[in-house]
Amino acid sequence: MDDYETDLNLEQSAEEDEDWLGEDTVVLTGVPEDLWSDAPVDQPAPGSPEKWIDDLADKVEIERLCNMQVLVPQSEFQGDVTGSLTTKMVRD
After folding, report:
1. If DSSP states are collapsed to H, E and C, what string results for 14-81?
2. Considering only 38-42, 51-55, 72-76, which range has the smallest mean pLDDT?
3. With a threshold of 0.85, does the pTM exceed it?
């Protein structure tokens, strides 16, 4: 702790900036264009989306969770089920 300083250093080095390179970039691969909207985020949506859009969003989310192995199809699970998990799809 010999190099500990109490003063706030507002100047960052180029090396520190590299740690955050791309942090402001949002990349969502695999999200169908039908799920995107150009509506302002600070205003409520003009109405409920059609059922097929909600179904598509559910499918994309379940596939995403399976790809991360958060969810595993029952047929591929080799262990013992020791508990339960419930989920709720929430739409806004």
Report:
1. HHHHHHCCCCCCCCCCCCCHHHCCCCCCCCCCCCCCCHHHHHHHHHHHHHHHHHCCCCCCHHHCCCCC
2. 38-42
3. no
